[in-house]
Design a protein that fits this description.
Blueprint: H1 2-14, H2 19-27, H3 34-40, H4 45-54, H5 56-59, E1 63-70, E2 73-80, H6 85-107, E3 114-116, H7 125-131, E4 136-137, E5 143-148, H8 161-168, H9 178-189, H10 196-202, H11 207-216, H12 221-240, H13 244-251, H14 256-267, H15 271-282
Parallel strand pairs: 3-4
Antiparallel strand pairs: 1-2, 2-5, 3-5
Length: 283
Amino acid sequence: MEYLQLLNNLQNSLAANDTSFMLGQQLLPGHYGDLSHGLLHACNLRQALQILIDSQARLSPLLAPHLLEHKGQVTLHWTESYVTPRLRGFVVEMMMTAVTSMCRWLSGQKLPWRYSFNRTPPAYQEQYFVHLGQELHFNQQMDAMSLPVEYLTQPWPRGSDIAVSAAVAHQQQPFMSLLARLYDYLLRHIRSSPTLEQTSADFGVSPATFKRYLASHHTNFQAELDQVRVHVTLQLMQGHDYNNDQVAAYLGFHDANNFRRSFKRWTGLTPSMLRMQVSGQES
């Protein structure tokens, strides 16, 4: 993918710790024709994020954004679309900065985002402080940014429903990547314990071909399934206060002990350790 190669070249040639953040500041609303016009005239945060999600293949082709609401919080989290493992951290920094910068400009205020990163703390944390702020949490289970839900509907100064409707009226969604489509598929079918065989059949290919496709994206079916299970577990625990038995039943496990062992394999944490981690962040 040319865009991915361009970012790789930039990272190699510039070799500066703030490159991803500086690129992100220029990315949105950007120069995407009607889509940029729609973002520029979004009436509020919810409308802007919906445009970003609906037009992910154009506005965020390397990482797919997803929106969740729970317990008075809204969370925008990111999953892989095309990005390589080597560039993932770079692109996460870029896209979080892009959303942060866009929201600050269009809302006229600095929104109280809280950031979670599925990585160890980098050596250049000062760049995170400068471009994102102080609310940073590393070694988390997903790359996400969250804030109180009331910010979703606060009116933005440039907002115009007419302009947004005209901008997005005739937009056609470009073809989504395999990983983005697979994530959505697994999320829809997670309660029925999807298998490689059934999933590949639904995607119209053989299991062997599906494996090769996923290998070309530096992943495999089990890793993608486990990622969705972790994200669903987080949502059930944080948003609905599910206990281990309830989560196990939701995900199709025979009992809570089986779920607990699997969760430790997925994340390196027990469910109780995760609850303590989440509780520490919220406090």
